[in-house]
TrEMBL record:
InterPro entries assigned: BET1_SNARE, T_SNARE_dom
UniProt region (Disordered), positions on chain: 1-20
Family, per entry: Belongs to the BET1 family.
Protein name: BET1 homolog
PANTHER family: GOLGI SNARE BET1-RELATED (PTHR12791)
Residue ranges of domain T-SNARE coiled-coil homology in the record: 24-86
Gene that this sequence comes from: BET1
Annotated membrane topology: Single-pass type IV membrane protein; Single-pass membrane protein
């Protein structure tokens, strides 16, 4: 029965207090909002997957750089040890040549890295 309707008012016998067309409008609105939400969730999911992939690539690059810096640090430490050994002797001219050569190598490596 229709709420507030009297039996003689001409109300439909199977009515539950709402019209079928009003219910259909709410269902269509609900379906539209559900589809909108589904598309937004899908976009966020793909974005989060892309972020995860980028983070993995960045972590891999950082670990490679860490390994490169460790090997370079070891090489530099060995070179400094050799320079200390040379500086203890009276071979000042040889030490000067070694320093100039080291600076030259440093600038060549710097120039190569800048061109990458």
């Amino acid at each position: 029965k229709v709420f507030g309707a009297k039996p003689g008012d001409g109300a439909a016998a199977g009515s539950y207090g709402y019209t079928n067309s009003g219910y259909s409008v709410y269902e269509e609105e609900n379906d539209r909002l559900t589809e909108s939400l589904r598309s937004k969730v899908s976009a966020i999911k793909s974005l989060s997957i892309e972020i995860g992939t980028e983070v993995k690539n960045q972590n891999k690059m950082l670990s490679e750089m860490e390994n490169d810096f460790d090997s370079t640090g070891g090489l530099l430490g060995a070179t400094m040890g050799r320079l200390r050994t040379l500086s203890r002797g009276s071979q000042t001219k040889l030490l000067c040549y070694m320093m100039l050569f080291s600076l030259f190598v440093f600038f060549v490596i710097y120039w190569i890295i800048k061109l990458r």
